[in-house]
Amino acid sequence: MKISFLGAVENVTGSSYLIEADNKKILVDCGMFQGGKELKHRNFLPFYFNPLDIDFVLLTHAHIDHTGLVPKLVKDGFNNRIITTEATKALNSIMLPDSGHIQETENEWDNKKRKRKGEEPREPLYTVDEAVASLDFIEGVKYEEEITLTPNIHIRFRDAGHILGSAIIEMFITENGKTIKITFSGDLGNSTIPILRDPTIIEETDYLLIESTYGNRYHEEYIKNEELINKIINTSYENGGKLIIPSFAIGRTQTVLYHLNNLFNANKIPRITVYLDSPLAIKATKIYTKFKDLYDKDARKILENDQNPFGFPGLKVSQSVQDSMAINLDESPSIIVSASGMCTAGRIKHHLKHNIWKPNATVMFVGYQARGTLGRSILEKNKHIKIFGERINVRANIQKINSFSAHADKGQLLDWVRGFKKAPQNIFIVHGEEEASKELSDSINTEFGYKTDIPTLYSSYELTKDKPTKYFIPKVELEKVTDDDIIKLEEELLELKAEFKEKVVTILRNTSTWSGNQNVEDGLKGLNIITDDILEMVQEITEFCFNEISHEYISMLSERNIDDKDLSYRIRQFPQKQPLDYQFFMKDLRSHIFDTFKISRKVFKLKK
Q1: What is the dihedral of CA 297, 87, 151, 206, to 10 degrees?
Q2: CA-to-CA distance for 39 and 32, rounded, in angstroms?
């Protein structure tokens, strides 16, 4: 039995874990990488595996960093079962098409930039139609129901209390007469926030994967933050400005609306207009009202007197683009709740552009802001930010409320681990930035004496009834790099580029199908697109390494030499309309790319 960590390790996005057992391949989560350029680039890389080889996909919950690459998986050939909870299936029906729309929109903007640079356009990661097509493979099951994947593999979904339908996945695998249990925590919920039930306590498992998003932080008490939120809302109203709340469409928005509804009912805040400006959040809120059986006791009690805990007088929903634009024409004090929660896409960016430079405006964050996101940049009190390529001064009042987080904090994570009556053989700390994962790991070691590991990207383990065996864990250590090293490397790359093109000219001139200088020049125009992009990719990789932010990618390259299949995949991403037979120069192209990688690696010291 083997597990490979393909995402959400050393960061909080791209959740994906591959289990190989009983001659089956099971993918737990298929999440999109979100954040800066280097993270988003991973979404366009080939899958670590062949999608046709995957037998089952299991989804812990509907957030895009756990499900966002499902349409790409189906697009690339997957055609088997995707299993999740009923509520997650319902939320996926709106989340994935919305993600497809974002991919199309961002790709359109990107192609405009590419056109200005004289570059050929590229296709989006996936389209709305491709996202809709992927929904046909998803089936929903109930919590606590035992599902048989094979006679030797059984699974069960338990309530994780993170968002509607979120699940802890228990997997029971029998090999050689012995059954091993693997538990995937998914994202565990914050037990102090309202609406959903607390995470299910798991009493026994052989192996555990536990998230560590807030593994080094504690949320403030919810009651204290209620007072702070009241103060922020009332101060914003008195200042005559807008209060902007970037909020995740699923989970966080419903919590915010629930809280505002309670405040209005208690007459603790003025009756001001609240704009819900997210078509996705509007749809998600409707789905939340259909699964009231998943609410906790307090929420069900409120339902006895208030059948709509997410609605109140003064709430206006903005479905159309015109509705959204009209919000910024309203000069009166108001509250704008809009997606995305990390300000990476969606209508929230327009509201920030119109208001964040105003001293009487307030931006209140109610969720985690990952590195590389616009939200993180604002939260770190940068004086200037860029939105849609425009540099904007930040003068608004910036606030952060941690108690609204849907993730368990360090104390709650430790409390959940405390529920085990028997020590797990090994605990893998995942879904957290390096500092958070390390602190949670140390705390579990110290308090419980449990064995822990913090996997790295693409690392794999053999899981047995006795102990896990590490057999591929990439690790990169940078040597000291001087300015002279960088200059020399750049010179070598330029020399290689010239040598590469000269070699191709020779190939073309010696080919009977290419005669005459004009044909050679025409061929080079097409080839330049490929060579420039590949060399630019190598230069970017090198730059990433200098900045110590792409160790895992270099490790992958060092362990997985690019073969003809991989290279063919990459070339197919470039324009196909050029009059050139790619296979003709494949061998030479491949050897030159290897030479380029060798140059890039001169500044590294690779260790396993």
Answers
A1: -50
A2: 9
Instruction: Locate 27 and state its tokens.
Output: 């993918």
C-alpha 492/C-alpha 489 separation (Å) is 5
Q: Please give the structure tokens belonging to residue 338.
A: 């809009």
Terminus-to-terminus CA distance in the chain, angstroms?
22
Q: What is the largest CA-CA distance in the chain?
A: 84
Task: Determine how β-strand 81-85 pairs with β-strand 56-58.
Answer: parallel
Task: Pull the structure tokens for residue 327.
Answer: 């919000």
Q: Which whole number is the average pLDDT over 292-307?
A: 90
Pairing of strands 315-317, 273-277: parallel
CB 417 within 8 A of CB 444: yes
Q: pLDDT at position 538, please?
A: 52
Q: Hey, what amino acid is at 519?
A: N
Contact 549, 38 (CB under 8 A): yes
How far is 503 from 497, CA to CA, in rounded Å? 10
What would the pLDDT profile of 350-392 be if each residue is shown by its tens digit?
999 999 999 999 999 987 787 778 889 999 888 899 888 788 9
Secondary structure (3-state) at 99 = helix
CA dist 594 and 512 (Å) reads: 28
pLDDT at 584 over 70: no
Structural contact between residues 362 and 236, judged by C-beta atoms closer than 8 angstroms = yes
The residues, ordered by sequence, that sit 6+ positions from 477 with a Cβ below 8 Å of its Cβ are 605, 606, 607
Q: What is the DSSP letter of 147?
A: E
Per-residue tokens: 186:
């998914």
pLDDT tens column, 117-146: 888 888 999 999 999 999 999 999 999 999
Residue 561 identity (one-letter amino acid): N
Q: Which helix (H) or strand (E) holds 366?
A: none
- What whole-number distance in Å separates Cα of residue 193 and Cα of residue 259? 10
Structure tokens at 22: 């009983």
Nearest to 600 by CA among 524, 549, 545, 556: 545
Peptide bond just before 340 cis, omega within 30 deg: yes
Q: Closest Cα partner for 243 from 399, 405, 406? A: 399
Residues in the chain: 608
State the pTM of this model.
0.73
- The helix (H) or strand (E) run that includes residue 393 is strand 390-393
